[in-house]
Amino acid sequence: MRVTFATQAAPDRANEDFVAATPDASVLLDGAGTPPGSDSGCSHGVAWYSRTLGSTLIASISQGPNPLPELVPADSVLVLDITGTPDPTVICDDREAQVGALYRAEMDALGSGSDTHVSAHRRHVETLRSYRNRDGGFWVAATDPLAAHQALTGNIPADRVRAATLLSDGASRLVDRFHLATWREALDTLDQHGPANLISTVRAAEHSDPHGERWPRGKTYDDATAAHVSFTSTE
Question: How many other C-beta atoms lie within 10 A of the C-beta of residue 37?
Fold first, then answer.
């Protein structure tokens, strides 16, 4: 098994993502950041919460038999390259995106970085907060332990998985928002050039569209994190 990962904060801000790996597990968390003027709900901040939760998870898994279900909550993507299938299997909890699509028209119509866009983004985030961790909304890691039971879970025989990739939505936007690569092309980039190269490609796309004219989005730049686990020999 070979594990590679990379993370990069959005310009001029603390990285709210978390990534770690052991010989037995990989953990990636995408911190639910808040726009200026909004309360994150955590007195220590989102970055602290992501790191505290992430380090607790990886330590718990490493100390013995895994007491946790394999899970994928909102804002993260799991891509599995399964032998014998031409296209990767993509697992993502899209309940947040489905709710968000109902309320993002005003924000998407405004140029990223403008004062009006910042205000619209803040209203969008605060609206979505009322749907967080409740039925009919979406679920994220929080103080309510019930959130973990709402995550997508599953299992697959290990000998069928050639590679597995975890992506925060700041990294997955190369495929699912910018449509500059297919999932197969993204996995090939990770195999051949590593996670840092994929993140650099995302940054180049963001820089090419600073006002969100080609790709309307809440954040012009986002924290981007990728962990790639290969189960085949590279020799």
Answer: 9
